[in-house]
Amino acid sequence: MDGQQLFFLIAALVIVAMVVIWALVGRRGGGSATGHDDHDHGHGHGHGHDDHATLEAPPAIIATMGAALDPTVAPLSTADVDAAIAAQAQEASVSGKPRIAAAVGEPNDLRKIKGIGPKLNTLLGELGVSRYDQIATWTAADVAEVDPYLGTFKGRITRDNWIEQAGFLAKGDIAGFEAKFGKL
After folding, report:
1. DSSP alpha helices (H): ranges in 32-173?
2. Do 84 and 172 share a domain, yes or no?
3. CB of 128 within 8 A of CB of 103?
4. In the chain, how many domains are there?
5. What are the TM regions of this chain, as residue ranges (predicted)?
6. Same-domain status, 161 and 137
7. What is the CB-side half-sphere exposure of residue 143 using CA atoms within 13 A?
8. For a disulfide at 136, which of 20, 32, 168, 170, Cβ 3.0-4.6 Å?
9. For residues 120 and 179, what is the distance between their CA atoms, to the nearest angstrom?
């Protein structure tokens, strides 16, 4: 089982657990979710009934892998997951920029990062990437979000170790940077 399959299996299990909890909370006994009856106990609401709504079990609308708890729910296929990812990519491409944390502060000279030249520096600026600390905190999800926008430079973030390089530069650790990546 590769990492992506494991991720989707764990995500599906979390969703199933949430649905089970939601269903159990909604099925608590009595006329309402609070366990009170539906009479106004002099709380001054003047409605003649308790203001708490009755919780009902949710409909089975969340697709789960294998539909382990509810056989009436269609299993989530790889094609469904791929379609959801494609839809997210389309949504991001409509905005023209990746969905990542915005840079805060004056821009850094990203060309100090090995593998970023003038063209890539300009492209990153257009995408809203302009600081070492911004790159240094990227997660795998952030890399996956930014990478498709890099065009012919796709894959460079990981291949050139931008995150690690940016970490040294963000801390001002020039000696550490040069020891690992060479002279600036």
Report:
1. 78-95, 118-126, 132-136, 140-146, 156-159, 162-171
2. yes
3. yes
4. 2
5. 6-25
6. yes
7. 16
8. 170
9. 24
